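Practice set, problem 2.
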Amino acid sequence: MAAVSTPYDLYYWPVLPGRGEVIRMILEDAGVAYRDVARDEGFAAITAVREGALGEPRPYAPPVLKHGDLVLSQSAVIARYLGERHGLASSDERGRLLTQQHFLGWSDLMAETHETHHPIAVGLHYEEQRDAAKERAHHFLANRLGSWLDHFERIVSHGEGHHVPGVMTYADFMARFVIRGIEYAFPSTFDRHRPQIPSLLSLTERVEARPALAAYLASDRCLAFNEHGIFRHYPELDA
């Protein structure tokens, strides 16, 4: 196992805050040395990794983390690895399992949000599936978003302000990322839900107030949400 002092190499798309952004947040919060490789070397670095440059088994897609001889993909796996090394994990097995469970729940919500603007195929442009996107977004906003937010509000309110009672974990970081992403994508709808999620909003603000993370979020290293990422704002979908 690689020592914590070994620098991390993160491979993720350099132009968007997607599945790799919560990994950046954890690394920045921890104040550890890491290299955002594709920002230095371009998209070719990610292509090389997908073609086996870091060995087998090769990852299907980023994010990918290299730490010494260890190579990991899938954001939930990477977040758990980093969280348990850098103070964002429970001290007991039940808490660790619940953290992973809740992180994956937020990942499911993130995927559903993405599918509002790409309901047919990720390989098609939004403009090629606009009508289907309008229908998908309508059902998501009417039937799914509120249910998801109620679910997580209940978890956090019963967990003393966190997903695992009394402990700041990487699941809390994921919650902050998804909450802000949905707020960006569907501002009008999100405003109507604000009164029902006081615990989630408080948690989001406390995550953002962590000194090292706050410095990152205010820096030009932190990319703003945009129409290339998972969370996209198309006004016609926020009806």
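Problem 2, part (b): a different protein.
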Amino acid sequence: MIATILLSFGVLFLAELGDKSQLMALTFSLRYRWWVVLAGISVASVAVNLIAAGVGHFLGTALPANAIAVVTALTLLVVGLWTLRDALGSAEEAEDAPPPSTRNAFLVVISAFMLAELGDRTMFAAAALASKNGWLAVWIGSTIGMVAAGGLAILVGKLAGKHLPERGIAFASGLLFLFFATKTVLDAFVSGLSGWGSTGLALLVPVVVGLGIGAWRFYRPRRDVAVPDQPANAVP
């Protein structure tokens, strides 16, 4: 059992490195308290890996991959657009906005992680491990590995937030979410594409969106430029 736990931990931890779940953890760590994000990741990891281990043990790896891919892509798209909206908001709006409650932040993190992890490669990896090993050991090891990877992303987010502009990190994260959403759909429904082909096509979406946002911010009217008041006796 110990060997299976260690194997599951290693597989899930390595699979999560650089994955969209780590990006989500990093993005949430810029918005919410670190312990709220870590707690939400932990609860979501327990639930998702229990489902994966149960499915792998009792049903093999039979999952409705295409339907789950659509849900995953929609989740990533919503989180990406939400992140971009916050990144593009004015500094005054960010300062005046009330901080989110701990309960709401906790529920947001849990919901986003569960929807994003359903059908992810890490869930299929856990299901595959459970089909050949004890489901309990796979569940424990997979959960610990996923939480450890999320904790690493939170640490990186907190350290980066001290040295890099938060709005810049959020903007880049939002574009990356759009990339992952597009790639998820391409991998699920366009079978003729290679890995590099889907990656190249998926990159077009954040590039076009990023250029469009940049052009909009450059050419939009400056609303913050005050027009000096004319004296009442001024001659027009």
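Answer key, part (b): Residues 2-218 form one domain. The chain has one domain: 2-218.
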